[in-house]
Amino acid sequence: MVWNNNNGSGGAGSPLDRPRTADELPRFARDTTPENPWPVSLLSQHFHDAVERWPAAWIEGQIIEINARRTGTVYLTLRDSFQEVSISALGFGAFAQKARAFQQGDRVVMHGQADLWVKSTRLSFRADDIRRIGSGGIKEQIDELRKKLKGEGLFDESNKVPIPEFPTTIGIVCGPGARAEGDIITNVNLRWPIVHFAVKYAHVQGPQCPAEVVQAIQELDADPAVDVIIVARGGGSFEDLIGFSDERVVRATAACVTPIISAVGHEDDWTLIDLASDMRASTPTDAAKRVVPDVREQQQLVASAIGTMSMRMRAMVDNESRLIEGYVNRPSLTQPQTMVESHERDIADAVRAMRIGLTRIVDDAQMHVEKLKATLTALSPQSTLDRGYAVLQNASGHVVDDAGDVHVGDELTITLRHGTVVAQAQATHV
Length: 430
Known about the structure:
Elements: E1 2-3, E2 20-21, H1 40-52, E3 57-67, E4 73-79, E5 86-92, H2 93-99, E6 106-117, E7 122-135, H3 137-151, E8 169-174, H4 179-191, E9 196-201, H5 209-222, E10 228-233, H6 247-255, E11 260-264, H7 272-276, E12 279-280, H8 284-291, H9 295-328, H10 331-334, H11 337-379, H12 381-386, E13 391-393, E14 411-415, E15 420-424
Parallel strand pairs: 5-7, 8-9, 8-10, 10-11, 11-12
Antiparallel strand pairs: 1-2, 3-4, 3-6, 4-5, 6-7, 13-14, 14-15
Helix pairs in contact: 4-8, 5-6
């Protein structure tokens, strides 16, 4: 066998600059030196050979991750039921067929043998049998917490706050140096470049995770400049994401006044923060695409709106122009005198009728006046005087119609047809 170690630091012509045969390499680890070390591949092979000699064993734990997408192969992550220790396992053929009936959270016993993948010097457990012994404690605890918080109304849709359409400042809760931060900022800037960011770092797995995530959420919620908060973490195992199902994190998320988006894990990963948040994104990148609009789409919408408005304005103008043209071509406008001719005729007819009516009224009134004049003339005292009669009045001006009212010597006024006569009574005869 030829062992290739082409990354040595020896000078030109050094044995480390070329592949070496087994005879050139130390037989035992204790014989290695800086000038004659083992290649990594040889060490990994020795590990593999040693692991192969280990006996098969039954192990017990809880399935925290299972992947049975590939036909004939199943990958699992088994976690110790009492300590935070886990191991990767895989199986093929009949085992894979049997393991497809299991799910995340199941407590199992599994038979197999330790195996080491030489290319990455990674230890795993190659299983050939699996049996269920119950449901895992962690899954049951999370499920009980979910039921409890749901009963309190923390997951109700009525508590959800709408995400602002055009945020100016986005708060981000993520791990220090996490790829999720870069994914969010990069994708947001590509879609809506005018956004500002407020980033709070926190452990996103391990025992420190819940308290630090709660503190980061509360600090961003207290900042009036922050319009929306994204809690982000890349994918991981069920055990890695368990901190985001902590009761403290869920309650802090539900109590957050600022709209909050959970972007924890990948599309298939679910934690309780997803239920309490105002929006769930499948990945941090998905959160970036959903928290801001696409400036190009908005430009297209504006252009489309302007086009629609212009089209409608042109249609309105064209319609009004047609109406005006119709009005202009009407005979009433081309020959406006026709509009008044009928009215002139009506007025002339009315004037004639009024003149006739007034003439008739005047004539009737004149005849009536003449009748009244004749009657008045006939009944007037002057007519009596004109017939030769006279009116006799005493000194006080009263008409005397009885001789008994006159005494000798009374002064009397006699009104004749023409003029008056003043006389003195000489005698009376009754």
